Amino acid sequence: MSETLNLPAVARDRVGKGASRSLRRTGRVPAVVYGNKEDPLSIHVEEKELVRQLMTGHFFNSIVEIEVDGATVRTLPKDVAFHPVTDRPLHADFLRVSADHKVHVNVPVVFTNEAASPGLKRGGVLNIVLHDLDVVCAPDAIPDDVVVDVTGLEIGASIHIHDIKLPEGVTAAHADRDDTVATIVAPSGLKSEDGDTTKGA
């Protein structure tokens, strides 16, 4: 499971573009917490701490506990808007979650046992179609990643969503589509061996 992150925050009493610009000048990032049938909560967080958590690489599939006015709000990050030139965070959105609230998250796909794939050992190439998988699960069951074992796979093999063993309590959001996750394709040299013809023959 992904670790729980903690993010201190301060409630915002003023909203609007002018107030947001003032906050950013002091190193703060305006944000909003919404969902779970409660009123939206306008807050601001420290830019440096938000950036640090973004750099963990698993911010968007981690539970973030926001501490504001002595209370802790369990959330899932949904969006962070960045400045188009400086890449500084401009605004963040967080979704309130509860223990029985199923959430949709994108989880990285990790491939293992490549040395045990005959196709890859012969020079085949692992062509990754989906780098992330959209899954549905309880907040406390969000996995760090989804592991795909390529043991025994030959050139031409395809891995689909239904081939992946997901952790207990985790389901693929679009399992009915059974999208291709990855394929093992022949190396370019092997593909062209039989296809070359002499021009003008």
From TrEMBL:
CDD domains, alphabetized: Ribosomal_L25_TL5_CTC
Residue stretches making up the Large ribosomal subunit protein bL25 beta domain: 102-187
UniProt KW Transmembrane keyword: no
Any GO CC annotation of this UniProt entry: cytosolic large ribosomal subunit
Record GO biological process: translation
InterPro entries hit by this protein: Rbsml_bL25/Gln-tRNA_synth_N, Ribosomal_bL25/Gln-tRNA_synth, Ribosomal_bL25_b-dom, Ribosomal_bL25_C, Ribosomal_bL25_long, Ribosomal_L25_dom, Ribosomal_uL5_bac-type
Keywords: Ribonucleoprotein, Ribosomal protein, RNA-binding, rRNA-binding
Source domain of life: Bacteria
Protein family membership: Belongs to the bacterial ribosomal protein bL25 family. CTC subfamily.
UniProt function note: This is one of the proteins that binds to the 5S RNA in the ribosome where it forms part of the central protuberance.
This protein's name: Large ribosomal subunit protein bL25
Organism: Novosphingobium piscinae
Recorded name of the encoding gene: rplY
